[in-house]
Amino acid sequence: MKRIKLALHYQMGIALILGATGGILLGDSYGIWGNFINGIGNIFLHAINMIVIPLVFLSTALGISTMGDSKSMGRIAAKTFGFFILTAIIAAFLGVVITSALRPGYGTHGRAMEVGEILNDALQSSQTTLMDRIADIVPNNVFEAFSNGEILPIILFSILLGYFVIHINEERQRTVNATFEAFNDAIMKMTTAIIKLAPIGIFAIVMALVGKQAGNMAEMRSNLLSLAFFVIVVWIALIMMGGMVLPLMVGMMAHVSPLRHLKQIYSALMVAFSTSSSYSALPLIISDAKDKFGVSNNIASFTVPLGITFNKVGTIIYECVAVIFVAQAVGMEFTATQQVSLIGASIVTVLGAPSVPMAGVVVLAILLNAMGLPTDYIGMFMAIDILCDMPKTLLNAYSVSCSTIIVAHSEGEALHV
Fold it and tell me: What is the rounded distance in angstroms from the CA atom of residue 252 to the CA atom of residue 244?
């Protein structure tokens, strides 16, 4: 008999349904089984948090140390990254502003024991100036930063280490990079193994959450409506970025008709959307850039893979909406300084995110920790991730194609407009 193997997102959907059903059936027995079920969910969340620091350190340091220093590629890379940063700032700003205005998280109920602690942390954080936050990014003691899980100082240290590895002699450079690659491969395999346990983690987290609220149907209904509202807010922000901002940039910066551009790359976008993977659309994006717009092979074959790795505007929007959603759910009002911090943290963290299955979960754990928020809500986001993952991946792929055409035009290439 042939064994049926379900894709991970289908397994997660089934786990969500079974967890919700089990939570309702749990009813009055929650007091007996609640701690055990909640413990299973916490084990999964702890496993996710366990791999965050080594993933961030190794992937960032390795990415910088293996970048190379070709002058021509350096110029193109600078332009490409300039586009990434510009669109990332706009995307993060959109996510923060729209979520703050629509307030989807205020119908969700946080845990009473945690809310007081979070509000105290928020009060202390609000008294910290922007310059203090910038200064705190430079680690006073890098080992202390690793121990305390201080993400931004670790990222800065990783970037500096990777940069200076490039400047040591070639033999030692190869040794360091080989070591980084070996550890990175091991951590990637560990991450993949942990992510495969996601259905079990989601089942336990949702079952505990629903079981706890089974006696209060009004509260449960409010939470479900908030999650639906969260998905709508994500889609609104993605549509604004992909339907207004990026087409405007293509028209103004590359002098290419946005409608023609969309029509020519439609197949690539549908591949990205249906597979929830920008990498699946990579060959199509390269061939479309060369064959349909006249971009040279040198630029297309360099900017597209670079963009697939780093150009993640859809992911940035999603992460910003998710973080503010959690803040609203626990009653925490972000100050202007904290919103700026979130924009910066989301850009740095997403751009350096490892290319592993459901990397958004790892990024969300990083950002929630960085902003002093609980990670308990990750299970809910994982359960509805497929509803946001397809459109945000499509936007990522579209942004990569936009960047390739804009960079080619800036290099003086005659595009087929």
Answer: 12
d(CA 221, CA 208): 16
In sequence order, what are the residues at sequence separation of 6 or more whose Cβ sits closer than 8 angstroms to the Cβ of residue 23? Answer: 206, 207, 208, 209, 210, 211, 212, 213, 214
Q: What is the pLDDT of residues 22-36, one digit of tens each?
A: 887 876 677 777 788
For the chain, how are helix, strand and coil distributed in percent, rounded to 5?
A: 80, 0, 20
Q: Which pLDDT band, with edges at 50, 70 and 90, does 220 fall under?
A: low
Contacts of 15 (CB under 8 A, 6+ apart): 198, 199, 200, 202, 203, 206, 383
Instruction: Report d(CA 360, CA 177) in Å as an integer.
Output: 26
Name the residue with tokens 């749990």: 26
109-149: pLDDT as tens digits: 544 334 334 334 433 444 445 566 677 778 888 888 888 77
Q: What is the pTM of this model?
A: 0.66
Residues 338, 126 contacting (CB under 8 angstroms)? yes
Residue-wise DSSP of 49-101: HHHHHHHHHHHHHHHHHTS---HHHHHHHHHHHHHHHHHHHHHHHHHHHHHHH
103: pLDDT strictly greater than 60: yes
pLDDT of res. 358: 57
CA distances from 367 to 110, 322, 360, 407 (A): 18, 10, 10, 31
The alpha carbon of 239 is separated from its chain's Cα centroid by a whole number of angstroms, namely 17
d(CA 64, CA 344): 19
pLDDT in tens, 48-77: 778 777 877 887 677 667 666 555 556 777
Q: What is the pLDDT of residue 132?
A: 67
Residue 5, pLDDT > 60, answer yes
Residues whose CB falls within 8 Å of the CB of residue 60, separated by 6 or more in sequence, listed in order: 155, 158, 159, 162, 352
- Per the CB < 8 A criterion, the answer to whether 380 and 206 are in contact is yes
Dihedral angle computed from the Cα positions of residues 248, 253, 257 and 262, in that order, rounded to the nearest 10 degrees:
-70
